[in-house]
């Protein structure tokens, strides 16, 4: 049965039960999927609009919004396909395939850079860990070639700045299509995620937490532990000797924390630990990101209404016919 037959009430009434159930399941599924996606997009737009922006120096620990500019972390990074200098990249390589009378693009390779880059505002620097983030880029370009990996940019170096515009499509034909998304150094960065301040990688641990790590390390060399704390030389540690071990570990923990406290704070923004909170990174102004999610919410809402209406019509035509 073709799609046009779905608009014929008589065809729906005489449709085999299995085929009717399949069409009803498909339209209902599309409707529910669109509803879920639309709600998700709208929620993200509202978060971007309503969340107060924090400064790195004074930001609270936890779910936080930061705005600044992108910086590299002292390394020279180039995108794999175009060789463009950047702080983050994502690319897709697709192959044009024919199957009978139809043809379509098939993804053959897809990768994203997962190492951190820096966000700087006028109060400090925060490391951004992009893993698991919904990342939107102002620099997006597409071009074509005859090999799986592009031989060259197909754009003269003097035009490369234009090539790295907001959105560029190079009109060459070829069996392969290359799509690249970039965040360049100096781009404006909006980031919403889990903010943590840290000293020397200790995550602001208490002395008792550091003590536990020290005890686990000491137990790994039990012979040395016996040599130092087995005062009665019976080859084991009794309750009093274990108490001495714990006190010594706590003293060592306090000494380490005292050394750490003199070191500068390190800040990181990463994927929230709470599953219900989105992790968003965008190399565009806050208003543009909000508008992008609102447009997505409207499109999915249209899909929900269209597919839901079709499912309702199918059910009505079947039951009332």
Number of helices: 7
Radius of gyration: 29 Å
Order of helices and strands: HHEEEEEEEEHEEEHHHEEH
First-last Cα distance = 19 Å
Low-confidence segments: 154-167
Number of strands: 13
Assembly state (oligomeric): single chain
Strand content: 25-35%
Q: What structural class do you assign from the helix and strand content?
A: alpha/beta
Give the helix proportion (percent range).
25-40%
Question: What is the average of the pLDDT values?
Answer: 81
Strand order of the largest sheet: 2-5-6-12-11
The biggest beta sheet is recorded as: 5 strands, mixed, barrel
Q: How would you sum up the global shape?
A: elongated
Record keyword descriptors for this entry.
single chain, 321 residues, alpha/beta, five-stranded mixed sheet
Secondary structure layout plus pairing:
Elements: H1 9-13, H2 17-50, E1 53-54, E2 62-71, E3 88-99, E4 102-112, E5 117-121, E6 124-128, E7 134-136, E8 139-145, H3 160-163, E9 168-169, E10 176-183, E11 188-198, H4 207-219, H5 222-229, H6 239-261, E12 266-270, E13 280-282, H7 286-320
Parallel strand pairs: 1-2, 6-12, 7-13, 8-9
Antiparallel strand pairs: 2-5, 2-11, 3-4, 3-10, 5-6, 8-10, 11-12, 11-13
Helix pairs in contact: 2-7, 4-6
What can you see in these coordinates?
This protein has 321 residues and is an alpha/beta fold. It has 7 helices and 13 strands. The chain has a 5-stranded mixed barrel with strand order 2-5-6-12-11. It has a 5-stranded mixed β-sheet with strand order 4-3-10-8-9, with no helix packed on it. Helix 4 packs across helix 6 (239-261).
């Amino acid at each position: 049965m073709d799609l046009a037959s779905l608009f014929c009430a008589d065809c729906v009434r005489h449709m085999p039960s299995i085929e009717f159930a399949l069409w009803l399941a498909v339209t209902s599924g599309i409707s529910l999927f669109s509803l879920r996606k639309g709600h998700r997009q709208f929620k993200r737009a509202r978060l971007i609009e309503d969340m107060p922006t924090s400064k790195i120096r004074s930001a609270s620990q936890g779910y936080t919004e930061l705005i600044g500019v992108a910086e590299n972390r002292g390394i020279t990074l180039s995108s794999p396909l175009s060789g463009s200098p950047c702080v983050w990249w994502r690319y897709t390589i697709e192959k044009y395939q024919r199957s009978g009378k139809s043809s379509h693009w098939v993804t053959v390779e897809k990768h994203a850079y997962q190492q951190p880059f820096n966000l700087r505002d006028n109060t400090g620097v925060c490391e951004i860990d992009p893993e698991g983030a919904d990342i939107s880029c102002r620099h997006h370009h597409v071009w074509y070639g005859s090999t799986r990996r592009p031989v060259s940019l197909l754009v003269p170096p003097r035009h490369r700045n234009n090539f790295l515009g907001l959105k560029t499509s190079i009109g060459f034909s070829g069996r392969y299509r290359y799509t690249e998304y970039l965040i360049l150094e100096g781009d404006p960065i909006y980031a919403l995620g889990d903010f943590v301040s840290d000293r020397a990688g200790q995550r602001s641990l208490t002395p008792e937490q550091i003590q536990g790590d020290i005890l686990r390390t000491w137990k790994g060399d039990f012979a040395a532990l016996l040599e130092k704390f087995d005062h009665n030389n019976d080859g084991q540690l009794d309750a009093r000797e274990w108490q001495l071990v714990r006190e010594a570990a706590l003293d060592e923990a306090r000494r380490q924390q005292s050394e750490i406290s003199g070191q500068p704070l390190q800040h990181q923004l990463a994927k929230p630990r709470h599953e219900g909170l989105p992790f968003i990174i965008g190399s565009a102004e806050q208003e543009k990101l909000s508008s992008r999610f609102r447009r997505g919410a409207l499109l999915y809402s249209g899909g929900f209404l269209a597919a839901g209406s079709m499912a309702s019509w199918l059910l009505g035509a079947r039951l009332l016919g």
